[in-house]
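Re: that chain you flagged

S.,

Sorry for the slow reply, it's been a week of failed gels. I finally had a moment to sit down with the sequence you sent. For the record, here it is as I used it:
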Amino acid sequence: MNRQDAQIAVDWTTFDPWAIAPVRHHLTQHPLLQMDALLELGKRLDARGSVRTHSDAVSAGTPFNQAPQLHPNRAGAAATLTGIAEAKAWMSLLNVQGDPVYRGLVDEVLDGIAPEIARRDPGMCYRGGWIFVTSPRTITPFHFDKEHNFILQVRGRKTLYVWEPHDTVAASEQARDLFHACHSRARLRWDESLRARARVFQLEPGMGAYMPSTSPHLVENGDEPSVTVSFTYYTDATRRDALLHRAHERVRNWGYEPPPVGRNGLLDAGLLGAFRGAALLRQWRARMTQAPQPRSDRAPYAYAGGQ
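Prediction finished late last night. Pasting the structure tokens below so you have them in one place:
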């Protein structure tokens, strides 16, 4: 697929992989993103535990990791998707690249932009796809994710608030360290005053945004059902950034408060060497003892096991 045929339209003259940007897309009529197809996908993913859902009682400040337990949606995927207008529910179809049909959609979209991404941010891997089907006036709580993310509105309208990935008021350095170390968002705290610091996108079908790794974000649905899709990936830079944050969290646990990632190049270089060396040693030991190999963040696709 050449750039003219790409499903996502990006201003590549100004694109910065570590800066938020508006985008447009051509997926609103894609057959795999229509409700009948999403219903069948939901049934398949529900059977393997790859659906995340909660009720519309969630607020911006609800802890993201605990939202499904704190405010459960007890209907299954099929019932929720069939009656999404009245379901009072938020639903995410997780890791759709694990489905043979939808892996093709993930590749179709990311292949179209991969050459341009590679020129600015090489090493695209760990590709993923996430489809959000939500009732009117539901909220995706304030949180951040590890991947670079193209979030695209297919049906309905949403307000997307995004904070730059290096905004330490919205998300502290310590919050990012802990998140990369153990996928905990416990140090990420919502405050209404943060809205004034956000980039705000009023998303309609055909519109979207690019969000770099660990860009905090919050999504508020409009007055009608919504379908939104995210295409995500890691790069060499995101893997380096994640490893450094993990290393800084380890150093903090040893009693030393490190400077922010990127502030001290000599320290970061030493930590990268030490932690990469330790990882290689663990892999060698696993091979020697025939122990299971850990999942690699260099894999072509994100791990799509049960959630």
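What I noticed first: The helical segments are 35-47, 67-70, 77-82, 100-120, 173-182, 236-253, 265-289.

Talk soon,
D.
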